[in-house]
Description:
- By secondary structure, the protein is of the alpha+beta class.
- It is about 25% helix and about 10% strand.
- The protein has a 3-stranded antiparallel β-sheet, with helices on one face.
Amino acid sequence: MTRKYIDCREFPSETHCSVAISADSDEELLEVAVQHAVAVHQHADSPELRSAIRGLIKEGMPPEHLVPPGAASGAPEGVRPH
């Protein structure tokens, strides 16, 4: 069985969240990720939120270190590399 994960570091946020969540099943991961999104990111638990989170689930394990998109590119702040 392949682990599943969601990594908040992949998505810029005002909280600069560094949480990565992993589980053995999509359903287990979804439930924990929804709880996190509601408690930390102030989202409302809704079918739309659950659908969006389900679309973010990846197989494997989150990398130990992850540079947020555009952070180490040398590009000016607010400018993302192509």
